[in-house]
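seq as requested:
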Amino acid sequence: MKKLCFTINSAGGLSVAFPIIEKIKKKKIKIILLYSNQIKNNKLLNKFKIKKIYLKSTSINKCRNILNTLSPNLVFCGNNGNNKFEIDFLRSSKLSNIKNFTIMDSWSYPLRRFQFKEKDKIFNIFPNNIGVPNKEIYKILRSKAKSSNVFISNYPQINFNIEKYFKNSKFKRKSKTLNFLYISTPYEKQGKNHVRDGSEIIFNQKNIIKKFLNILDEFSKKYKIKINLTIRFHPLDNMKFYEIKEMNKNNQISLINDKKIFNYESYLEKDAVFGISSMMLYESYLCGLPSISLQLSEIFKIKKKKNYFKNVKGIKVCNNDKDLNIQLNKISKLKI
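struct tokens:
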């Protein structure tokens, strides 16, 4: 029996792996998931009905020993970028002459996902097979990863959630209550060997949420509209639900802590989806929902910064109060 190992250290990688594993687990293939401390509390992990091995730490030697013991025919390596766990397994599989592949979970920083840093030097490393989301990234990686098979895979996790959403969605009734979803984005700590070039946008999510709640507060009072705002926390978000509740001063806005596992479950019965730089914004747009990126900070306007959510089809960008009020008016007219 052939063996396939998935090595994952990110929520994005886990979401990509799930629909792939669901498709192939009925075949005569033994599937093993090697996962890290970073995703050990991810609720989606419990949905994987396969052999799982938890690893607290990695090194090249440790990863090589594990792969040599398991002897897989193929290794899937997540590619979250600046991710030692996933890079260690990719490097180890190459050193052990085991075929490897990856599928990108996002369009941001396509080259950085295949780089690692050692002693202040940056190295490129590309899997044998690379699934990319679109033609633009295909051209970028095809020119760099000359010995790899680069192909357009789209997003397996998005296709999965869209299909499930339309199977489970129901007709929305007219109502004077707006049901919104906010998707959080975790703060990214800069590690010692992280690859950085100064183009990253490091924003203060708490400040943006506070501005968002203030605008919702004024909007609900002006138009006498009730708002249910569901908060879906990223698995790595350190912000607590009570912190957001303390920011809310309006009893017309009800806050709900989302406990759903799959993305599509969070979209059901929602009138719009808000966030900052989550792939769920693009996914919810493809589900037919208004999708808004809250870029309510001056840092998003700095020219040298790379804003990967600035010109995405279907995602409306709000840079200020006026932008957001325009979107809220459009959404409310569709619902009320």
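DSSP finds ten helices and 15 strands in the chain.
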